[in-house]
Amino acid sequence: WNEIIELFRAGMPLRKHRCRFKSYERCFKASEAVDCLHELLGSNQNFGPEVTRNQTVKLLKKFLKNHVIEDIKGRWGKEDFQDDGHLYRFPPSSPLKPYPKKLSCGKEVIKFPDWDEPKAGTSQEHIPVKSLTMNSEMWYKRHSIAIGEVPACKLVFRRELTQTNIEEIWKSMTLSRLQKVLGLDSLDEVLDTKLVNSKHIVQNAYNVNKLGIVTLEDKSKELPHWILSAMKCLANWPSCSDLKQPTYSGFERDVFKTIVDYFGQMKEPLLTFHLFDVFVSVLGLLQKHSKAVEALQISCLLLPPENRKRLQLLVRMMARISFNKDLPPLSESVRTRILMVQAFSRCILCSKDEMDLDELLATKLVSFLMDNYQEILSVPSTLKSSIEEHVVHLQRVQIKYAGADTDATFPPPSFCHQISTDEFEYQRATGSQEPLEALLEEIAMNKEISVKDKKKQLKQFQKSYPEVYRVRFPTPETEAVLFPEKNKQKPPILMWALKKPFQPFHRTRSFRM
């Protein structure tokens, strides 16, 4: 409080202003005060550039209420300050709040070490300390201890964190959060964590443009310009700024086919082969919308930056085309939304050993991705904040009190533990059963598809995952329950059909013999 007041009084320009045909010396406009104080707060390490102009106005309201400033008629005490042209001035009396002093009780008070003057031989130049935005509660916790008696203490200097250290912290905490959201005992069930690149996570979190799209350091991995132009053409139809649209009929279908052909020739899907089981595990959370979104947010952070960017651009185009009523139909027989899912699901998600069921899994996931792409393909803010706070904590100078063991830094959170080979094989075999069981149950209970399609999908499931299928349908009778036979009533036997007219007995030649 006192520091900001002193800076404001020293930095605020004062000059003569006129108001209602009268001149006032050494005063300033309200808007000028907002400009000056906002700039001071932005450059102060206790506040930082995150301070908004609106927050600055609120602080000036407090200044007016506490007689740090007054209007040109000497009025103060209310919070009616506005960002306008009203004139204000500094009062002649000091607005600084006195520091509380504690009376001496005959006890020796240990001097608190000076923050600005480290002991001889100790250098602080190597310690990276990130500026932290302070609120009143944090300020009180940090500085109120200097008011009274404190036990003996010393400063503990942290080692400097390298970029590699920070990247490993990002990987560790990201995987730890993913494991918790998926509800797994270990990520080894669905993911080889050694294949996760920590640099990719950090690049996906920080190298983004104002739209949240990843910016690539290696420009050779960008999409070709002609594909980007084609995607923009359909996404922004009919207003396309990149090229002049020809007038021939079926042009938009030719452009769509070009995009489908390009993504269809990729050797690996955008969600990659080694992350396939992770995304399949998310299918079991689709009923819990918020958890599914968070799980997909974190999982997409693990992608290579070029894959993440292509996924962002592709899914955004798919969603825009699906809702664009001005775009002519791209197919005579299939609705546009269904066409989008069918055309691109395989290039987004499929396993290395392709199975018949991959199409069903991909269709379900891609549909959810299209409906929630803006949330899913953005950086999870809560995770980012927690990691940044942890990094700042590791970089900050700490205080060690006598008798307290605070030298040890917080260990990085662990995301896996060592298990035996047999347990690993068991977890690998059973790790994805829960989402598969949920998918099988959904197929079995789906009343919107025909009996023929249901039998076809169940047969595909049985072929791909016989163990999961056998648990749900152990006997043919349990499977037959899904397809009850209609009771066909036999027509009643008419009595007259049984009655034949009386015929006299005729002797035959063989009888006589």
Concise structural overview:
This protein has 513 residues and is mainly alpha-helical. It has helices spanning 2-11, 30-43, 53-65, 136-143, 163-182, 198-206, 225-235, 251-264, 276-282, 289-301, 305-323, 336-348, 358-371, 373-376, 381-395, 421-430, 433-445, 451-464, 466-472, 476-480, 495-498, 509-512, and strands at residues 15-19, 22-29, 70-71, 87-89, 153-156, 398-401.
In terms of topology, how is this protein built?
Blueprint: H1 2-11, E1 15-19, E2 22-29, H2 30-43, H3 53-65, E3 70-71, E4 87-89, H4 136-143, E5 153-156, H5 163-182, H6 198-206, H7 225-235, H8 251-264, H9 276-282, H10 289-301, H11 305-323, H12 336-348, H13 358-371, H14 373-376, H15 381-395, E6 398-401, H16 421-430, H17 433-445, H18 451-464, H19 466-472, H20 476-480, H21 495-498, H22 509-512
Antiparallel strand pairs: 1-2, 2-4, 3-4, 5-6
Helix pairs in contact: 1-2, 2-3, 5-6, 5-10, 7-8, 7-11, 11-12, 12-13, 18-19
